[in-house]
UniProtKB/TrEMBL annotation:
Record-given protein name: Adenine DNA glycosylase
Top class in the EC scheme: hydrolase
UniProt-listed Enzyme Commission number(s): 3.2.2.31
Keyword hit for Metal-binding: yes
Family named by the database record: Belongs to the Nth/MutY family.
Residues in HhH-GPD domain copies: 38-189
Keywords for the protein's UniProt record, in alphabetical order: 4Fe-4S, DNA damage, DNA repair, Glycosidase, Hydrolase, Iron, Iron-sulfur, Metal-binding
Free-text comment on the cofactor: Binds 1 [4Fe-4S] cluster.
Entry-linked InterPro entries: A/G_AdeGlyc_MutY, DNA_glycosylase, Endonuclease-III-like_CS2, Endonuclease3_FeS-loop_motif, Endouclease-III_FeS-bd_BS, HhH-GPD_domain, HhH_base_excis_C, MIG/MutY
Its biological purpose: Adenine glycosylase active on G-A mispairs. MutY also corrects error-prone DNA synthesis past GO lesions which are due to the oxidatively damaged form of guanine: 7,8-dihydro-8-oxoguanine (8-oxo-dGTP).
Reaction it catalyzes: Hydrolyzes free adenine bases from 7,8-dihydro-8-oxoguanine:adenine mismatched double-stranded DNA, leaving an apurinic site
Pfam families tied to this protein: HhH-GPD, NUDIX_4
Molecular function via GO: 4 iron, 4 sulfur cluster binding; 8-oxo-7,8-dihydroguanine DNA N-glycosylase activity; adenine/guanine mispair binding; metal ion binding; oxidized purine DNA binding; purine-specific mismatch base pair DNA N-glycosylase activity
Length: 354
DNA sequence: AATTCGTGGAA
DNA sequence: TTTCCAAGAAT
């Protein structure tokens, strides 16, 4: 055991692992679950303040289930991947309604909940209940791809399946809670994507990539693709009370479910914006004052945001098909906005020189 | 099965 | 400045 993959890892973990992250305290299924969702594709340092605030506002699954979804989204504002927040809220209600507020302890049952996939279900089961289950996050993928010198990009199903198989093989019966934490810690602090510290690695003796001095060749790189360019108008419509118009974005797509500024067809010229606003929103506007535009890069495309500010001149009716709200700026910030929009609304607006 | 979901840190 | 990608899941 001591000289096995897991044994070597656990011995290292006892000395060098991370033992005092926020979700390690008062450990229960709820806290483990929330932390695992927040940590999806998100670094530990980014998550910590969000986790603390979230736990203060929603201390248990019942509190989360009973909260308005906008309250949940506002606590997620700036964290990204907002479907996680909506799924988290939905799953909390599922746990309360279907399981009386007690988390199921079976991996398959957890996987049926919104936002919980194979790896997250395994992590919850292992961390919260100490039940043997194999995880496969970015850290484990990197460690195993190097240890076994597995070629190819893990985005390919065939590569992913091999990594899952190795993860299953190495996961021990005993100390699964520590083992699961250990292999993630190793990936995060030793087997890093650039300049791995192989001289400090407990798995170095059996590591194929190290033996070949090819550690940085694994895992295989994602194929490159040019990012498409997209452009949009985002308008700050301000009434005489200093309130601005926000719209809820559709549940799918970028910033799904969040409140944001109304968008207009990028084909409009600046001088056409007042008429476009009147047609789309049903009230008159003054000439558009252009604000410095900026480019925001997402994983698959670049978004050019052209902000414009218009003063509302006519009466402001209530929404039709899309959900709308007139709010003061401080209220907008409390609603939970996408990070670039929050920046836009809190940065002094400068007229562009176009 | 490959793509689409954010954001910020690191190189 | 640009690129990569991190405690993945849903589609």
């Amino acid at each position: 055991m001591a000289d096995s993959f897991a044994g070597q890892l656990l011995a290292w973990y006892d000395q060098h692992g991370r033992h005092d992250l926020p979700w390690h305290h008062d450990r229960n299924a709820y806290r483990v679950w929330v932390s695992e969702i927040m940590l999806q594709q998100t670094q530990v340092a980014t998550v910590i303040p969000y986790f603390e605030a979230f736990m203060k506002r929603f201390p248990d699954v019942a509190a989360l289930a009973a909260a308005p979804v906008d309250d949940v989204l506002s606590h997620w504002s700036g964290l990204g991947y907002y479907a996680r927040a909506r799924n988290l809220h939905k799953a909390a209600q599922q746990v309360v309604a279907e399981y009386g507020g007690e988390f199921p302890q079976q991996q398959e049952t957890l996987e049926a909940l919104s936002g919980i996939g194979r790896s997250t279900a395994a992590a919850i089961v292992a961390q919260a209940f100490g039940i043997r289950a194999a995880i496969l996050d970015g850290n484990v993928k990197r460690v195993l791809a190097r240890y076994h010198a597995i070629p190819g990009w893990p985005g390919q199903t065939a590569v992913l399946n091999q990594l899952w198989q190795h993860s299953e093989e190495h996961t021990p019966e005993d100390r699964v809670r520590d083992y699961t934490q250990a292999i993630m810690d190793l990936g995060a602090t030793v087997c890093t994507r650039s300049r791995p510290a192989c001289e400090r690695c407990p798995l170095q003796p059996g590591c194929t990539a190290y033996a070949r001095q090819e550690t940085t060749s694994y895992p295989g790189a994602k194929p490159k693709k040019a990012k498409p360019e997209k452009t949009t108008w985002m308008v700050i419509l301000e009434d005489h009370q200093g309130r601005i118009l926000l719209e809820r974005r559709p549940p799918s797509g970028i910033w799904g479910g969040l409140w944001s500024l109304p968008e207009l067809d990028p084909a409009y010229g600046p001088e056409e914006l007042p008429d476009a606003c009147e047609r789309q929103f049903g009230f008159g506007c003054s000439d558009a004052e252009l604000i410095s535009g900026f480019r925001h890069t997402f994983s698959h495309y670049h978004l050019h945001i052209q902000p414009a500010r218009l003063a509302v001149t006519g009466p402001t009716g209530v929404a039709e098909e899309t959900e709308q709200r007139w709010v003061h700026r401080d209220e907008a910030l409390a609603l939970g906005l996408p990070a670039p929009i929050r920046t836009l609304l809190t940065t002094p607006e400068q007229t562009a020189l176009l």
